Amino acid sequence: MKIKLQGVRRVKIDGDFIRLDKLLKLACITSTGGAAKVIVQNGEVFVDGERCTMRGKKIRPGSVISYGKEVLVVGAPLPGSPRNAEDHAACNGCDE
């Protein structure tokens, strides 16, 4: 049985990891760090299929994050590429 995921977005990060709450803000899932903290602590976010309530969890390339109908795949940026420029250009409600 094949499962087709719709709305999967790739989020590129600099470095080896990013904290879960910062990733949610970077990907414009939430507009503030405080909102990210609330949804994580309420157990609404899944990391690699497991419910996660640790907002400071280190998320590494290859991780799959889901919140509601949103699915993020974390990846490292290609050398010399701008970080998430296209993601932020299309982001609604994000102040960056």
General description of the model:
By secondary structure, this protein is an alpha+beta fold. The chain has a single domain, classed as RNA-binding S4 domain (Structural Genomics Hypothetical 15.5 Kd Protein In mrcA-pckA Intergenic Region, Chain A, Roll). It is 22% helix and 26% strand. The chain has three helices and seven strands, in the order ββααβββββα. The chain has helices at residues 20-26, 33-41, 85-89; strands at 8-12, 18-19, 45-47, 50-52, 58-59, 64-67, 70-75. Strands 1-7-6-3-4 form a five-stranded mixed beta sheet. Strands 2-5 form a two-stranded antiparallel sheet. A hairpin with a 2-residue loop joins β3 (45-47) and β4 (50-52). α1 packs across α2. The model has no long low-confidence stretch (mean pLDDT 82).
